[in-house]
């Protein structure tokens, strides 16, 4: 009786935002033009007393902050936004040319298929492919006890690859290049944020009128003070300023977290031939991972006690490499003689996991012959912001959550944040919302917090249960299949592992 | 059955003299001791000392956790409906960030401007009118803080007065207002008269015959927080059928109707074909009247 006059609701009201393939022509050489696009209006604003007004101020132009700008540039709803990026990092301002022959950087990220598809849609991935990168389709995980090993092959899940390793600078530069391709209005402030006033009430806006500017020129805006003495206004402030986020502190957002009494050594090494597989071995002191980086290079992430890490960092190159080769080979124990899958009865829970290649033999990782970068040591810690969003403010990337480098997940979680936030901003614009409105921003928080916490809980579970670290490979797999509904069997096995039902530290 | 609701009153505006703490109670925003005021107040007529005074009250209208929370929470949902309905009717590009460019829209009973502002951001030329002067000042002050909305024309007047002035609009909005007016049938006639022959009318209101669970949540918000005490009985709300009927008599054909359903777990509203709680109707002028 109440339904007298309804009509085809479903198709009328479904608001679809199309994803347009971005930038089909005029592919510029990476880094050939500057992103700095001061238009005339902005120039005038900068030189007169009136502070420029933006829709969004992204504080921190690291991989995640730039990814947000890149995603916004690629959607019809958001590409007209005026965006300021505040970061004193010189990599943003100058035209950075990355050459394939440049020595490899120790800072790399293992990019999951989900992140790759975000970057593809935004037009950035093609620039990653122009530089050094390594897709890998095989993984091998084993431990020092010699009990067993597991191998994974992308083939088994009908995929071409399990992930891709690229240097952070390559990812960063690819994102910048794709913004340059667009006509997106981005202004880069080579400066640092020093103070911030969010002006969340109309009352404060009216009462704090000190300048000659009309109220409407500032809008409902946050005011940001920069280290060069200038200030800008923005309707939305995005804190993408990393683990020690100043935006987070200025907004009074507290964090929860702890440090693990373990460090990771990160460095790049060279082999005599190209490495095509991701390797991980669990040692009594913690796992060591060897990730292919392209050419003949690999990246090493090796967890150990702080004392051991400091010792290994100061060893000569020759001694250090000897340690690496031993850790990846006979060190601490023999090679496994059988595949874990050979003993189906004992490991029946493995049946959940169809990605394990049943008929591949154990292999020894390629020998490391040269140290190709400095050795960097980082303490392992976990930190999570209690809130991601308040009026006129959101946190993304490491500013919202820091997992340690070893997980290889930091940037993937951050790309997920940036992608989700860009879609929610687009949705807000489609409905005429003020993009700094807290109800809108809380949607972003709701979407990302659960995903991030789940990942962090898994990481922490591993840490606690075995007091050794989980490796990038396990987590990578978790993330890789997250979107493809592989999650339930996967989660089951992760959880049963972490909760202590299966004590074997070789896993998946 | 609509005749039950046709009151024998000349004035459309209801005046209520119950005053509560203006910062705590939304009711006071629907009444004004100095009513009716029909003179338009332009931005320039707001004095500086008044600005500060109204600014603090404005925060109440605009506090998304405050007394008007239901309107804020419902806003994206009703805008989804309005956006699709108007884009289709006026053949506007649904993928544009400003699809309403070129449309003249009046928001009748605009309150603090919660609907007027998004309409302006979507490109429309917006006029917001409300019978309560205080609301208009708040709306002006708040919209004035953002260049994207500072162009909205706010007037303290009624739909009836606008009709007398001979104003016409491409689209006429009256969201969550009809339950406050004394004579819904007369009110609908005024809305029809303000609508251009090729234009559209959008009305939303609460359903009288709500289901039990919704009554607990939604009715509490409506009756306890919004409605002037003692003046509106539950029975004075309309059902969708009644609304369709009185709109039809006023010369408006309802072409689309959607329900808003409330999810108490997420605290969000969504559009559905269930019109049993709160509903929104889109109509066009009947060609033969
Ligand atoms: C040493 C190290 C190694 C890592 N290795 C890996 C790895 O192998 N794989 C992996 O997936 N993840 C790794 N991570 C994590 C990964 O790098 C981060 O998750 C990722 O970089 C987060 O990106 P972000 O943009 O959020 O923050 P960041 O990359 O930290 O960027 C923050 C940016 O904000 C800027 N900034 C800071 N303060 C201000 C301010 N006040 N005003 C303006 N700008 C400011 C900084 O200049 C910087 O450019 C590593 C992290 C560290 C620290
Ligand atoms: C519940 S509020 C709705 C505000 C706004 N339409 C919205 O949905 O966000 C109802 C508003 O209608 C106004 N109002 C009630 N009767 C009116 C009338 N006859 N003419 C104009 N405004 C009226 C009240 O002053 C109040 O601001």
TrEMBL record, chain A:
Q: What are its E.C. numbers? A: 1.14.15.45, 1.14.15.46
The record's listing under Gene3D superfamilies reads: FAD/NAD(P)-binding domain
Q: What pathway does the annotation place this protein in?
A: Cofactor biosynthesis; ubiquinone biosynthesis
Q: Where is the FAD-binding domain?
A: 54-328, 374-450
Cofactor(s) required for function per UniProt: FAD
Where can this protein be found? Mitochondrion inner membrane
What's the protein's topology in the membrane? Peripheral membrane protein
Which EC class is this protein assigned?
Answer: oxidoreductase
GO molecular function terms noted in the UniProt entry: 2-methoxy-6-polyprenolphenol 4-hydroxylase activity; 4-hydroxy-3-all-trans-polyprenylbenzoate oxygenase activity; FAD binding; oxidoreductase activity, acting on paired donors, with incorporation or reduction of molecular oxygen, reduced flavin or flavoprotein as one donor, and incorporation of one atom of oxygen
Statement: the UniProt record of this protein carries the keyword Transmembrane helix: yes
Q: Mind telling me which residue stretches traverse the membrane in this protein?
A: 56-75
The reaction(s) annotated as catalysed by this protein in its Swiss-Prot or TrEMBL entry are: a 4-hydroxy-3-(all-trans-polyprenyl)benzoate + 2 reduced [2Fe-2S]-[ferredoxin] + O2 + 2 H(+) = a 3,4-dihydroxy-5-(all-trans-polyprenyl)benzoate + 2 oxidized [2Fe-2S]-[ferredoxin] + H2O; a 2-methoxy-6-(all-trans-polyprenyl)phenol + 2 reduced [2Fe-2S]-[ferredoxin] + O2 + 2 H(+) = a 2-methoxy-6-(all-trans-polyprenyl)benzene-1,4-diol + 2 oxidized [2Fe-2S]-[ferredoxin] + H2O
Which keywords, in A-to-Z order, does the entry hold?
FAD, Flavoprotein, Membrane, Mitochondrion, Mitochondrion inner membrane, Monooxygenase, Oxidoreductase, Transmembrane, Transmembrane helix, Ubiquinone biosynthesis
Q: What PANTHER family does the record point to? A: UBIQUINONE BIOSYNTHESIS MONOOXYGENASE COQ6, MITOCHONDRIAL
Q: What protein family does this chain belong to?
A: Belongs to the UbiH/COQ6 family.
UniProt function note? FAD-dependent monooxygenase required for two non-consecutive steps during ubiquinone biosynthesis. Required for the C5-ring hydroxylation during ubiquinone biosynthesis by catalyzing the hydroxylation of 4-hydroxy-3-(all-trans-polyprenyl)benzoic acid to 3,4-dihydroxy-5-(all-trans-polyprenyl)benzoic acid. Also acts downstream of coq4, for the C1-hydroxylation during ubiquinone biosynthesis by catalyzing the hydroxylation of 2-methoxy-6-(all-trans-polyprenyl)phenol to 2-methoxy-6-(all-trans-polyprenyl)benzene-1,4-diol.
Q: What is this protein called?
A: Ubiquinone biosynthesis monooxygenase COQ6, mitochondrial
Native species? Clitoria ternatea
Automatic annotation (TrEMBL), chain B:
Q: Name one GO biological process term.
A: methylation
Q: Which gene encodes it?
A: COQ3
For the ligand (S-adenosyl-L-methionine), the binding residues are 78, 109, 130, 175
Q: What is this protein called?
A: Ubiquinone biosynthesis O-methyltransferase, mitochondrial
Question: Could you say which residues bind Mg(2+) here?
Answer: 176, 179-180
SUPFAM superfamilies assigned to the protein according to its UniProt record, in alphabetical order: S-adenosyl-L-methionine-dependent methyltransferases (SSF53335)
Would you identify the family this protein belongs to, as annotated?
Answer: Belongs to the class I-like SAM-binding methyltransferase superfamily. UbiG/COQ3 family.
Subunit organization: Component of a multi-subunit COQ enzyme complex.
Kindly list the places in or outside the cell where this protein is found, as annotated in its UniProt entry.
Mitochondrion inner membrane
Q: What does this protein do?
A: O-methyltransferase required for two non-consecutive steps during ubiquinone biosynthesis. Catalyzes the 2 O-methylation of 3,4-dihydroxy-5-(all-trans-polyprenyl)benzoic acid into 4-hydroxy-3-methoxy-5-(all-trans-polyprenyl)benzoic acid. Also catalyzes the last step of ubiquinone biosynthesis by mediating methylation of 3-demethylubiquinone into ubiquinone. Also able to mediate the methylation of 3-demethylubiquinol into ubiquinol.
What are the GO cellular component annotations? extrinsic component of mitochondrial inner membrane
UniProt cofactor(s) = Mg(2+)
First-level EC class: transferase
Superkingdom of the source?
Answer: Eukaryota
Q: Which organism is it from?
A: Clitoria ternatea (Butterfly pea)
UniProt keyword list = Magnesium, Membrane, Metal-binding, Methyltransferase, Mitochondrion, Mitochondrion inner membrane, S-adenosyl-L-methionine, Transferase, Ubiquinone biosynthesis
Recorded hits in InterPro entries, A to Z, give: SAM-dependent_MTases_sf, UbiG_MeTrfase
Chief place where the protein resides = mitochondrion
Kindly state which reaction or reactions the protein catalyses.
a 3-demethylubiquinone + S-adenosyl-L-methionine = a ubiquinone + S-adenosyl-L-homocysteine; a 3-demethylubiquinol + S-adenosyl-L-methionine = a ubiquinol + S-adenosyl-L-homocysteine + H(+); a 3,4-dihydroxy-5-(all-trans-polyprenyl)benzoate + S-adenosyl-L-methionine = a 4-hydroxy-3-methoxy-5-(all-trans-polyprenyl)benzoate + S-adenosyl-L-homocysteine + H(+)
Quick one: which pathway? Answer: Cofactor biosynthesis; ubiquinone biosynthesis
**Membrane topology qualifier:** Peripheral membrane protein
UniProt-listed NCBIfam families: UbiG
* GO terms assigned for molecular function: 3-demethylubiquinol 3-O-methyltransferase activity; metal ion binding; polyprenyldihydroxybenzoate methyltransferase activity
State the EC number(s). 2.1.1.64, 2.1.1.-, 2.1.1.114
């Amino acid at each position: 009786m109440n339904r007298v006059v309804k009509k085809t609701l479903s198709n009328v009201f479904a608001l679809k935002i199309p994803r347009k393939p971005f930038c089909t022509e005029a592919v510029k050489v990476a880094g050939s033009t500057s992103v700095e696009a001061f238009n005339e209006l902005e120039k005038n604003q900068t030189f007169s007393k009136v502070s420029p007004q933006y829709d969004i101020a992204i504080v921190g132009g690291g991989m995640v902050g730039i990814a947000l700008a890149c995603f916004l540039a690629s959607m019809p709803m958001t590409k007209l936004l005026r965006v300021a990026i505040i970061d004193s990092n010189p990599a943003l301002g100058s035209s950075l040319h990355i050459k394939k022959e440049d020595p490899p950087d120790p800072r790399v990220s293992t990019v999951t298929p989900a992140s790759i598809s975000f970057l593809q849609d935004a037009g950035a991935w093609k620039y990653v492919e122009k530089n050094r990168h390594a897709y890998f389709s095989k993984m091998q995980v084993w431990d020092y006890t010699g009990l067993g090993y597991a191998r994974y092959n992308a083939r088994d899940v009908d995929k071409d690859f399990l992930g891709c390793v690229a240097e952070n600078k390559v990812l960063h530069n690819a994102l910048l290049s794709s913004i340059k391709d667009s006509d997106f209005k981005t202004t880069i402030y080579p400066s640092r944020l020093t103070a911030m006033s969010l002006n969340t009430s109309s009352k404060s806006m009216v009462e704090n009128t000190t300048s000659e500017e009309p109220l409407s020129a500032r809008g409902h805006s946050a005011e940001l003070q920069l280290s060069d003495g200038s200030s800008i206004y923005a309707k939305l402030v995005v804190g993408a300023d990393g683990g020690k986020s100043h935006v987070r502190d200025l907004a009074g957002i507290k964090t929860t977290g702890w440090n693990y009494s373990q460090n990771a050594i990160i460095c790049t090494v060279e082999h005599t031939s190209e490495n095509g597989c991701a390797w991980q071995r669990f040692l009594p002191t913690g796992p060591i991972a060897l990730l292919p980086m392209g050419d003949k290079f690999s990246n090493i992430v090796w967890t150990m006690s702080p004392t051991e890490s400091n010792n290994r960092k100061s060893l000569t190159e020759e001694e250090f490499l000897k340690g690496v080769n031993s850790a990846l080979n006979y060190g601490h124990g023999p090679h496994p003689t059988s595949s874990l899958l050979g003993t189906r009865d004992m490991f029946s829970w493995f049946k959940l996991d169809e990605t394990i290649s049943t008929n591949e033999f154990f292999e020894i990782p390629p020998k490391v012959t040269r140290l190709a970068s400095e050795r960097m040591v980082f303490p392992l810690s976990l930190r999570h912001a209690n809130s991601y969003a308040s009026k006129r403010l959101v946190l993304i990337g490491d500013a919202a959550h820091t997992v340690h480098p070893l997980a290889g997940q930091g940037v993937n979680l951050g790309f997920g944040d940036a992608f989700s936030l860009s879609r929610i901003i687009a949705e807000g614009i489609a409905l005429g919302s003020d993009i700094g409105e807290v109800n809108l921003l809380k949607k972003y928080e709701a979407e990302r917090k659960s995903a991030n916490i789940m990942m962090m809980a898994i990481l922490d579970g591993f840490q606690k249960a075995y007091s050794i670290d989980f490796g990038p490979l396990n987590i990578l797999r978790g993330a890789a299949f997250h979107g493809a509904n592989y999650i339930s069997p996967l989660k089951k096995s992760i959880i049963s592992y972490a909760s202590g039902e299966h004590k074997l530290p070789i896993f998946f | 059955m609509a005749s039950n609701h046709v009151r024998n009153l000349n004035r459309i505006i209801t005046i209520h003299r119950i005053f509560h703490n203006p910062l705590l109670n939304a009711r006071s925003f629907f009444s004004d001791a100095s009513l009716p005021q029909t003179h338009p107040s332009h931005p320039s007529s707001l004095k500086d000392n008044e600005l500060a005074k109204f600014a603090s009250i404005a925060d109440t209208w605009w506090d998304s956790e405050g007394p008007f929370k239901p309107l804020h929470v419902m806003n994206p949902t009703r805008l989804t409906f309005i956006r699709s309905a108007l884009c289709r009717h006026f053949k506007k590009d649904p993928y544009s960030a400003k699809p309403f460019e070129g449309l003249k829209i009046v928001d009748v009973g605009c309150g603090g401007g919660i609907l007027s502002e998004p309409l302006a951001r979507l490109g429309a030329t917006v006029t917001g009118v409300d019978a309560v002067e205080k609301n208009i000042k708040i709306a002006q002050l708040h919209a004035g803080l953002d260049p994207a909305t500072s162009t909205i024309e706010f007037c303290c007047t009624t739909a009836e007065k606008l009709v007398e002035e001979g104003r016409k609009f491409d689209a006429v909005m009256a969201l969550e207002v009809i339950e406050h007016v004394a004579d819904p049938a007369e009110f609908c006639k005024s809305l029809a008269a303000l609508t251009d022959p090729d234009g559209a009318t959008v009305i939303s209101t609460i359903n009288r015959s709500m289901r039990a669970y919704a009554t607990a949540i939604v009715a509490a918000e409506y009756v306890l927080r919004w409605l002037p005490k003692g003046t509106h009985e539950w029975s004075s709300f309309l059902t969708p059928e009644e609304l369709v009927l009185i709109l039809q008599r006023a010369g408006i054909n309802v072409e689309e109707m959607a329900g808003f359903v409330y999810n108490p777990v997420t605290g969000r509203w969504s559009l559905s074909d269930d019109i049993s709680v709160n509903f929104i109707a889109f109509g066009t002028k009947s060609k033969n009247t």
